[in-house]
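Sequence only, no structure available. Ideas?
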Amino acid sequence: MNTPAACWERCRGLRERDVPAMTPLIRKLLGMNWLIVVLTILLSFFGVVAIYSATYFRTNEYWEKQLIWVMGGLGVFFVVSLVHYRWVKWAALPLYVTGILLTALTYTSLGQEHGGAKCWLKIPGVGTFQPSQLALVAAILTVGLFLVHFRKMHPMVKLACVSGIIGGPMLLTLKQPDFGMTLVWVPVMLAMLFMGGIPKRHMIAIFLIGASLLPLIVNFGLKPYQRTRLVTFIDPDLDPQGASYAINQALIAVGSGGFSGKGFKATGTQVEQGFVPGTTVHTDYIFTAIAEQWGFVGGVFLVGAFGGLLLGCIFSAHKSADDYGLVIASGFTAQIFFHVYQNIGMTIAIMPITGLPLPLISYGGTFLLMIMFSLGIINSIWVHRAEVS
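Reply:
I predicted one. Tokens follow.
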């Protein structure tokens, strides 16, 4: 009987036989977290534009290198997104050991000093990179593995073990001394411990202990110039021509951008005239150049884009198929959030000055590749959210 329902069933059967089944690769590509994918691509290419606008009048070296790193980083991002994140469990410990060894090598003749910290490693024939970035990513994978496999362990014993895992690379990074990079470990590990099942009372105890130790860290764990940065953060007018110069010039540049900015490649700006240090305007102070040229509107769009990226990361963590995906996604998300908050915050004087770059925007190959890898893991967690490892 040729009823409409029967005709529809016959047509659907023909369509299903004629159309080939979707391959796993295509299914993964179409099933990506497109909020993360789109914003990662847009932010990384906007970073190239921002670096170009901040340095084109001096050299084309920085934006050209950054473009190459972006293309390579996006390749890493898509490859990692397609690989099931459960495979990183096997790479966690080797990466952790490698990260510690390479960070320790910065204390040898292979180490290079930038900005007062000997945190870069020069590999003959390869170039320079920052091994502490690798150490942090590897520690996130390793701590996540430990928290998941020993979830039923007593919280105090678990905290002691996690402290042992992160203590080595943190102390090596602090001794370089790279206080900004060391600081990143705190919110990352707190987020992972919270999602890893540590009771709230223990989290509060950790916070109180850390707050009580802060004066000791400031007075005995920091170099004089780092303590000076904290003092000038509290009182920017203390030494306007010396220690406070950079932050004051950054505030002038951000404020001069006004509502809509001075325009792309505008002349006569604080950045072009060199009031914002040319050695850091494309790295630590890239938001200063963006705010001056694009104004409040550009800054709001940039912060909104990062907000969307973080929301995509949170959604991926929430939809994770297992606890391991949840814990490591939380750690990577906390890492990106703190970098964004600290970098933008220090240019508008709501945070002390530290040498932390802006994710996907600031110049630098090591950090860009590590962030792309982290976002790839988070995207893989979303892609494989329906699969139980």
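Residues 26-383 form one domain.
Hope that gets you unstuck.
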